[in-house]
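To whoever is covering the structure queue this week,

Two jobs came back overnight. Logging them here so there's a record in the thread.

Job A:
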Amino acid sequence: MSRELHACGAFDDDAIRRIEHAGMMPPEPLTPDEIRAIREQSSCCVYTLAGMLNTSAKRLRRWEQGLGKPQGAELRLLRMMRDRGVDAVFP
């Protein structure tokens, strides 16, 4: 979409770079309490939520204890679950 707007002259090169950079910004990290709250609000056990995130239960527990941090797709999925609810992300 932004490339089409650039092609028709609606945006200059700098504006396109800012738009594309904003779309690629990594999400803000979640605290261990936020991760635990996501699991508790979803009524999922550690194993179920870990399976949804395609990670291990051990790793999820470490995030909840503050011994590690989710990154990449795992972090994005957790943020979507927090913002929209688990049922909206995994119907």
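Job B:
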Amino acid sequence: MNIYEIPQDASQDLREKVADLLMDQMASIGKDNAYELLMDSIDLALQEHSGAYIFVAESEGAILGAAFFNLGIALDQGGYYIWLNDLFVHKEHRNQGIAKKLLLKIIYWAENQNIKGIELETGVSNAATKALYNSLGFYDVISKRYGFRF
């Protein structure tokens, strides 16, 4: 298995493989018709200076997992932090350490980029994911997330 950052000049085939994987995640939250939105988001993320990154776990040409994150500026830390938007592993490849390997790759990348921290959120009842995050040194930050959509 190879874990790497998708380059800005990624092929259309690779972009579509990532979108195909993430469609499974979108379907799980009731967004069955989000393929074009995913492709638009992937294209935006891979533009120069977008501040967004996509890392994938690939084996024998198949994308098994993906992580999508953005850089933000942490006013209280005087530098950049990562907001991990999505971390998803295909259901047939879960419980094989793929999510952990993706996170470790991101942590290593962040340390080398002088990133100040990583933030994310998960469902309150998602015990397995919380255990993974805790095992890597993430800690619970009590907060309530709000959203606004146009």
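Note for Job B: The first helix runs from residue 12 to 28.

Please reply-all if you pick these up so we don't duplicate work.
Q.
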